[in-house]
Write a structure and sequence with these properties.
Helix content is about 80%, strand content about 0%. The chain contains 5 helices and no strands. Helix 1 packs antiparallel against helix 2.
Length: about 140
């Protein structure tokens, strides 16, 4: 069995990593809500609130702060943007017409997306950016 080891994140990317932890808690709450048959309207309210206060600003930071430090058209930057767009689309659909399957898709996509960023994107940035570039990212995030 493969053991998943905690990732030692650079100080400069820790603010985004902490938000990812909160995102995984959001995923857990959606799954628990579905499992406990919480009303779809209640889940919709929570999802809409979480979108406005957490996911939307987080996406903005990643797209406006991180992506410019990557080569134009880099596959990971493209993947980040595509997944952000799909999450936005799902949330808009849920906001318009909540459906149990959309909540399941949203939870699974957010979880997979966070894992991609933590295990691939952030590691790429830490390996390919200078200490000063990482510090520049940190200052822009603050």
């Amino acid at each position: 069995m493969n053991e998943i080891k905690p990732i030692k994140r650079s100080i400069q990317l820790q603010p985004l990593s902490r938000e990812h932890h909160d995102g995984l808690l959001f995923v857990w709450k959606i799954k628990q809500g579905l499992e406990n048959r919480i009303s779809l309207d209640k889940l919709k309210e929570y999802t809409s609130w979480y979108w406005r206060h957490h996911i939307k600003p987080h996406f903005f930071q990643e797209e406006k702060v991180l992506v410019p430090f990557m080569p134009a058209g880099h596959p990971m930057a493209v993947q980040l943007k595509k997944e952000h767009d799909y999450i936005r689309e799902l949330i808009l659909n849920i906001d318009h017409e909540p459906d149990r399957h959309d909540f399941i898709r949203l939870a699974n996509l957010v979880e997979t997306h966070i894992r991609f960023e933590e295990r691939e994107l952030f590691q790429y940035l830490e390996q390919h950016l200078s200490e000063q570039e990482l510090t520049d990212i940190y200052e822009k995030l603050e």
